[in-house]
Amino acid sequence: xxxxxxxxxxxxxxxxxxxxxxxxxxxxxxxxxxFGVVFGFLLQKGGVAKFHVLIGQxxxxxxxxxxxxxxxxxxxxxxxxxxxxxxxxxxxxxPTRIASNVIGGLLFGTGxxxxxxxxxxxxxxxxxxxxxxxxxxAGMIAGSYVFAEASGWISRNVDPIGDKGKLxxxxxxxxxxxxxxxxxxxxxxxxxxxxxxxxxx
Length: 201
Hints:
This protein has nine helices and two strands; from the N terminus they run ααααβαααβαα. By secondary structure, the protein is mainly alpha-helical. It has one domain. Strands 1-2 form a two-stranded antiparallel ribbon. The protein starts with 13 loop residues before the first helix and ends with a helix. The N terminus is likely disordered.
């Protein structure tokens, strides 16, 4: 009697699943690359990768950067919350930690003031051939390394100071989420219109 040997079926385990995921680029990484390229392209086309535009913003003489950022915040606010309402995305809210937020903001602002570039605009500027942005990008990488090395100490000694948890405007205002989202977008749009009208040359 002829017999056939069947290949044993191996059950998927968390280890094998993680190995298969690691073998191929994940969908999120591919999407991150695509949207990163698009974001950089839009930054460049919006003019916010130009040194004189960024310096003009810091000197309160050119509000192109604020206009671009406000436009992005309004679109992002409405889009993200609409997709969240439709259960297409989940919200990942960063905790409010007053000491860490203040210190981080001051460091970020100091770096921005000294170099006239932030991480996004610096990368876009370097990509378009502004080699003065190279020093800023190198400093950003070095700063990221220092932060990573000090992250344990920061989480133990700085993060607990003024830790308010994951707060949103919806948590602190006596309105439902839709009112807060639409109201915030309306206020920012009004500011954007005022800036556009008052800064037209």
